Amino acid sequence: MTALFQRSRAVVCGAALLASGLFSLSATAGLLEKGRSEGLTAGIANEQPYAYLGTDGQPTGANIEVLKAILAPLGITRISTPITDFGALVPGLAAKRFDLIGAGLFITPARCKVIAYSNPVTRSGGAFIVKAGNPLKLHSLKDVAENGQVRLATQPGSHQVQEAKDSGIATANVVLFDKDNEALAALEAGRVEVVYFPDAEIIGLLKKANSATVERALPFQQIPDAQGQPTWNYHAYGLPKGDPAFAQAFNEQLARLRASGELLKILQKYGYTENELPPADVTAEQRCGA
């Protein structure tokens, strides 16, 4: 009886340990495991040069290529890219409608309360598109604010909305468009006087438009910081909160990609230069506390 009891006890304990292990695995499983077995979904806003559908209907863009180069060494090769409005990306990730954000997304403290981020991939300043010849002489957000009659087009949910507000531009003079090409069309039609987006997006938008009626406003004065120096925004991938293993693995691969020079090679295909690479020691954690 004693031997039978001991064998029964061993079986029960073994089963309990197995169940505990399975529970632990299930409890800790995250995007690394999901990505390797099922693939991942990366929400995009269909905007150049970040992440968009090419002429063949396939997802492409700087963020898409970099994302594939980061995930492939982690054993994740299947990536689907549902398209949504830019302003719905952060709420969509928070609601788990997709696994991460593959669009160009600035790191901001407000967004850091809702989602996590990878470390920065690029840095960016702002830029204007204006009518050819820049008849209103708009070279900064301050110029727009001081005019009082200028209508500025940008995108809902973007960092540019807050920058316009902080620069003193009246809310009534900020006109929001879900798509950057819609904002450009409004400028061409005379419904706004200036379009404001990150510089990389402005470059891509002008290239796509190929129109002699509009141009980039140069020079352009970036928003100064407290020391009077130009401020930069930092693009990164939006990640879900509560998955530190995935974030760590993701950032390690991003660092390797940059150190090898491959990150810059990918970005250069989309009009970026070395100037758009952020300092290597800038992290998402630092920017979230900014």
Could you describe the 3D structure shown?
Keywords: Signal. Belongs to the bacterial solute-binding protein 3 family. This is Ectoine/hydroxyectoine ABC transporter substrate-binding protein EhuB. Pfam families: SBP_bac_3 (PF00497). By secondary structure, the chain is an alpha/beta fold. It folds into two domains: about 35-125 and about 230-290, 3-Layer(aba) Sandwich (D-Maltodextrin-Binding Protein, domain 2), CATH 3.40.190.10; about 125-215, 3-Layer(aba) Sandwich (D-Maltodextrin-Binding Protein, domain 2), CATH 3.40.190. Helices cover about 40% and strands about 15% of the residues. Strand 9, helix 7 (about 160-165) and strand 10 (about 175) form a beta-alpha-beta unit. Helix 3 (about 60-70) crosses helix 10. The protein starts with a helix and ends with a helix.
Name the features.
single chain, 290 residues, alpha/beta, D-Maltodextrin-Binding Protein, domain 2, 2 domains, 6-stranded mixed beta sheet, 5-stranded mixed beta sheet, disordered N terminus
Low-confidence spans: pLDDT under 50, at least 5 residues? 1-28
Tell me the number of strands.
13
- Give the number of helices: 12
Span between N and C termini?
Answer: 68 Å
CATH class of the largest domain equals Alpha Beta
